[in-house]
Amino acid sequence: MKLHKTIGLIIGAILLTMGVANAQVKQNISEEQLTDLLARIDNSTGAFAKSADTAMDKGGYNGSARENDLNDVLKRFKGATAALRNDHSGPNAKADFEKVLHYGVAIENFLKKYPLDGVQEDWGTLRSQLGELATGFNITWDEGHAVGAPVSAVDVKNLCQHIEDVADHFKSALDAALDNSKLNNTSAEDEINAYVRSFRDATNSLQDHYNEDRAKDDAKDVLTKGNKIEGFINKHKDAIPSDVHGQWAAVRLDLDRLAKFYNVNWR
């Protein structure tokens, strides 16, 4: 896959569209600052595109489901930038800019889930600069979604992917801790393992149906299952080491975000 060409077109579209859309949606950035920032983004894009193309080639992703996933996000990202370019002064301009950020977060989450050797440094530089651009328009990137932008289905998908990642870290830490605790080979260990499996099933269902009418019900199920884990950890806090509590805190933060997305309480 010629990833460098695709990404080059995407970021190029961002550079073009932000220049013409500036008068419509600009919030906190001057013309001089914007000009300088876009020049830095242009330079960083070349470095990231080159390293990403090399990494994809070495990773053997050609024709794989993983490549298809990235291509789909890139296609949607490109569509959002094209829409902004074609309607930069209309009422949809700010919404189109927000979509660019939504899919930018999706690309970032892909790279977190499937790290590509030699990409992270270049992506980190480019991502930081795009974050500056977003801040200039009163929107910021955060883990799993774009803060300050209306919540969309893509935000739910991005957050589900992030929940999956942090939950995997929690599960690994929990397994190791339980093996060396008084809960090892007890009914309590069976209980928490069942809760974690059920939680994973619920998050998978939400990922599968994030763009459907049932998404809110699936989100509530994720939060209900998460609450069971929360209760177990609080009940057995003395038997669970601090690093596991720390890993669960990251999951809890994402669950708080999910609850906020759907305006529901979970704990």
Give the helices and strands, then pairings:
Blueprint: H1 3-25, H2 31-59, H3 65-86, H4 93-113, H5 120-136, E1 140-142, E2 145-147, H6 153-179, H7 187-209, H8 215-235, H9 242-262
Antiparallel strand pairs: 1-2
Helix pairs in contact: 1-2, 1-3, 1-4, 2-5, 3-4, 4-6, 6-7, 6-9, 7-8, 8-9
Task: Write up this protein.
This protein has 267 residues and is an all-alpha fold. The chain has nine helices and two strands; from the N terminus they run αααααββαααα. The chain has helices at 3-25, 31-59, 65-86, 93-113, 120-136, 153-179, 187-209, 215-235, 242-262, and strands at 140-142, 145-147. It has a two-stranded antiparallel ribbon with strand order 1-2. Strand 1 and strand 2 (145-147) form a beta hairpin. It is globular, with a radius of gyration of 21 Å. The termini are far apart.
Topology pattern, helix = H, strand = E: HHHHHEEHHHH
- Total strands: 2
The backbone outline, from C-alpha atoms, is: globular
- Distance between the ends: 45 Å
Largest beta-sheet characterization: 2 strands, antiparallel
Poorly predicted ranges: 8-26
Instruction: Give average pLDDT, whole number.
Output: 76
SS summary, helix count: 9
Q: What portion of residues belong to β-strands? A: under 5%
Overall number of domains = 2
Q: Radius of gyration, Cα only, in angstroms?
A: 21 Å
Strand order across the biggest sheet? 1-2
Q: Structural class, from secondary structure content?
A: mainly alpha
Report the helical percentage: over 70%
